[in-house]
């Protein structure tokens, strides 16, 4: 029966290691929590932190969070460059129109000038209206894409069993989730520093 006893002892040893790691993670999280706004501190209970520490015993959660954050940064960079591109297209369009108008005015007979200028102003206003519409559509697209990324994050973390994560649009809950993500990320960074 020696093997049985050895296995029990090994299992107990592993349990106590897990427990120690859990306590350590929990105390780390409590330290990190103090850096968050007090409104968040009140809502992140000891139980939530304890559950989070338990989940973080599984290293894959750190990898999941890291992956999600990278996707999120890439999306933001991509959307930002799309914005810049649209902006420079619009600027080019207005400059071109301005030059066309200037040329037309130079070739125009003086008595037709007021008529031409009025027509040109209407054209410029129409273009500016179109530009505003395009920018509004771009803004809406950005909001939708970022919202979708948040939903993806929520559902991935919920499936991974990370407490406090589920699909919600409640701004209060979103703030809590953002802070939990920040805790996990900081914990992941301090872990790298130690390893």
UniProtKB/TrEMBL annotation:
It comes from the Eukaryota. Pfam families: DGCR6. Belongs to the gonadal family. This is DGCR6 protein.
């Amino acid at each position: 029966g020696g093997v049985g006893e050895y296995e029990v002892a090994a299992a107990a040893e592993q349990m106590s290691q897990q427990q120690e790691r859990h306590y350590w993670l929990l105390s780390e999280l409590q330290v990190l929590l103090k850096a968050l706004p007090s409104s968040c501190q009140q809502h992140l209970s000891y139980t939530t932190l304890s559950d989070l520490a338990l989940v973080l015993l599984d290293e894959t959660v750190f990898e999941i969070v890291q992956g999600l954050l990278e996707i999120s940064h890439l999306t933001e960079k991509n959307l930002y460059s799309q914005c810049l591109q649209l902006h420079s297209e619009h600027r080019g369009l207005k400059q071109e129109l301005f030059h066309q108008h200037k040329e037309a005015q130079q070739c125009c007979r003086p008595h037709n000038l007021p008529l031409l200028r009025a027509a040109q102003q209407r054209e410029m206003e129409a273009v500016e209206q179109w530009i505003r519409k395009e920018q509004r559509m771009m803004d809406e697209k950005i909001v939708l894409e970022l919202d979708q990324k948040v939903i993806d994050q929520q559902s991935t973390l919920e499936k991974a069993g990370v407490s406090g994560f589920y699909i919600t649009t409640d701004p209060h809950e979103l703030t809590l989730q953002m802070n939990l993500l920040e805790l996990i990320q900081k914990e992941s960074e301090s872990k790298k520093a130690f390893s």
